[in-house]
Amino acid sequence: MPVRHRLLAVLVAVLWGVNFIAIHASLEQFPPFFTVAVRWAPLALAALLLVPRPDVPWRWVLLYGLGFGVLQFAFLYWGMSSGMPAGLASLVLQSSAPFTVVLGALLGEHLSARRGLGVLVAMLGLGIVGSQRGDVSAVWPFVLTVLGGLGWALGNLAVRRARSHHPVRLTMWMSVVPPLPMLALSLVVEGPDRIGTSLATVVSPVGAAAVAGLLYTSLVATVVGTGIWSWLMARHPAGTVAPFSMLVPVTGLTAAWVVLGERPSGVEWLGCAVVVAGVLLTAGAGPTSRAGRHTPPVGDASDTPGEVAQGRGKAAATSSSRSLASGSAMVTRTPSVP
Q: Of 18, 49, 69, 254, whose CB is crowded by the most CB atoms within 10 A?
């Protein structure tokens, strides 16, 4: 993996880690379910108007949107609005990796001893972090964030089953799923009055920061971050790229420390380290060709910035997509961001 590609992977991890600060800012003004709906609405509109339909059955688009777009973010935003610190949320959401491994094994995927150990280690780390949530009011946000990781894992499985040659198209069309269900949930649970008040008072310093947070989440973290990540995943083994996602909680915890003044306890830092170790164990090794080198999947000019595979036959594209789909348990941290 060239140095410039490694730097791009680090950049994505930074963009995604800082995103938790942006989410925190948005939740200071808007109710959580409404925030999720607004987060996805611009991407959904762009997908419907500008992006070609992905080359996968609709059931995978819907399942991806339900798991990744609805369940993950409904629980994550609910948890953070209920008191889950932004930095710890960036760490606890990594529970998606062991959840993906376990769910894949339940559906018949091979579970190696290494990945099984990684699941146990990651869960131990989450248990350590959760043990520091002393009372019920603190435990509940932690549980909600873990459920967000489970939603992410369900989305992961949908992407792996879809085996799309155009992952960015799939992500954009997935964004069509969340807005209406989340808006309906917001109207029922949070109520029109609360939504109206948050919109009426948006012209304020807190409101301006909230809007900036929404723009960052939708455009910078999702579009820019996802685009770069998908481009990297198309050119390197999943096991090479995916571990860089473990820099997300490092960035998230650091940004929350600097910007929000959050100070995890020593035991929580220990739990963080254990979770990171467990997730790295679940990552495994990326797929390689017979010659020992990864064969990147074929996309089109709309999916990747500049370098588009040319002159590759249909057989190469098929082989590449299978290689990507059968990679590490963390392959489908593509193309997405919390």
A: 69
